[in-house]
## 1
Amino acid sequence: MALKHLSTALLALAAARVASGAVTKRVTCPTGQTTANAACCVLFPILDDIQANLFDGGECGEETHESLRLTFHDAIGLSPSKGSGGGADGSIITFGETEVNFPANLGIDDIVDAQSPFIAKHNISAGDFIQFAGAVGVSNCPGAPRLEFMLGRPDATGPSPIGLVPEPFDTITDVLERFAEVGFSPEEVVAILASHTIAAADHVDPTIPGTPFDSTPGIFDTQLFIEVQLRGTLFPGTGGNAGETESSLEGVIRLNTDQSLARDSRTACAWQSFANNQAKMQSEFRAAMSKLALIGQDRAKMVDCSDVIPVPKPVVGTPHLPAGASMADIEQACATASFPTLTADPGLSKASEREGLSASGSAISSVVVTGRSRPSLLAGASRFPLPEPRTSRRCRVACRPPRCRPPPALLPPTTDLSSLRFLWASATVSRTGVCVFAALPLAAPPFATSRRHHHSLCF
Ligand code: HEM
């Protein structure tokens, strides 16, 4: 009997070595790329397809954000205490008719619908596709780490139970317990929440869909960890929504759970530790994502195809306080170390913004509206001519004249447009059909004049 166990174990070990590529030489795939394991060659055509047709040519845009969210909502669906769910097994798509209707999955149908044709077209399991698309999408965001990707998730056998995906109105105790069930420490929970640096909410305040969680939703930077630590002073939309708390910036929404993780004694120091440490955030997020992507899976039976994932571009910009903010606005919560000293973005102060909002004059010559609160309103547009806005699946908010006009003035009439680089702004249609604008000056816009940026404005 012992001998039988030994030989089974040896066989399993041999299979695992083959699967992990340990005995396989680097190969050149039929498509020309090289990879550590021939089994990974199937991924290159999928990579090209999704970069072109899901991520709009490699954007860190809405589909990237939604794909990252989907990796989580699929993977967290395992609960030893509730006795079922397969984790990162693709059940959120395979058994979408059940899981997509869970309240915590509100809005996830968009990306389930967008990804499903790719799974049907390529020979890949839904579980593998979801994690692959998440890793590829994240690689489109400057500043992101290159995520690990392990291939080999079998098809899901059933839906996950309801109630496993955390909600923004959950207590931190509930959130930490839920994550602990799938092996995450409080520090790892904070690390994986770096995902909210490239995120927006469509449904938390449905009057302002596409409102981001920080001022730089197209960059995988540390601004989330800084901006959530600032004292909340406003609601970007209507306020009073479940799971939402006051944010410190116009056009930025704050989740109650993010607010509390930044202030709870169990997580505050971890939160603060990322505020001006891009490298730490990258490496700990990467490690946490590796763990997430393998919930319910057996690493030993999988193939490491991480070298198929593109290498992300470096981060753009440096950690800073938003224009007009000071260190006095930081709500210190970590008991053992001070929040790192940061300087404010030298844009227009909040006071001049207010002045600008009531001033007259016509500094704005072109308005482009997206549903994602990406930089969408440009001053001095004559220098950067823009095509007409259009409505598409990615532009859920369509503001067009005459219903929606540029605000008469967002800038003091004395503003020297040549010195002003860009306004970062969001615009949405309120329930009454009025266009609501929020503008923030950016001193060092990462987008500048690049064509990629224009593309992400959904022309
Ligand atoms: C305490 C845990 C978490 C809570 C309560 C939470 C909650 C939320 C909520 C309410 C939204 C907005 C959804 C909408 O209204 O459209 C959201 C968006 C998002 N979440 Fe989380 N989340 C959590 C953890 C995570 C994790 C672990 C990841 C990734 C690994 C993640 C990735 C994202 C992304 C990328 C978005 C943006 C989606 C988009 O822009 O369309 N979240 N999250």
## 2
Amino acid sequence: MSFGELARTGVSLIVLPGSEVQVIDTIAYRNDFEAGLYCHLGDGRAFTLLEFNWNVELYPPEAPQLVSWLRDRGTVPIVAHPERHGFFRDDPTRLRMLVRAGAWLQVTVDSLLGYHGPAPRSAADELLGSYREALLASDAHNLRRCSGLSAGYACVRDRFGTKRAEDLRLRAEEVLSLLIDPPDSYSQPHGD
Ligand SMILES: [Fe+2]
């Protein structure tokens, strides 16, 4: 259904820009960030989706310092799908250091449902049980990967209870309201 058809049938839909930004070289990342080259969530700078390469050899050891650097600039980095990275599962301290530095985590619904395999599924449970600063996402790349957020919240409700599911939903709503209606200090892209 097109946006025009949705509008005609009274379905209000807001589409915001944003993408995962993969970091391999933190110096290059900082330069590009300062130059305003990235499209952060909602194209503001309150939240950015930080992605790491699947290859552990490309994981920057100074990632916690990068997280602190972003927080100092008023940007909350959200680590995309940490439960799917073997190097976070094998070495949980690596992720703990990012969270201690101020990162939030974004867990993919399909991981929770087991569609990315048993290891991401149990890691997703582990992360949602251990870290308060988490969000759920569909990460729907295509029609084969769109289980939907409702399925994710239902799953969290079953495994962790209503309160945890509600915490996650409220956090997502807070993020969205900041993206849709940003305070003045967040509305200018960085580097301008
Ligand atoms: Fe990704």
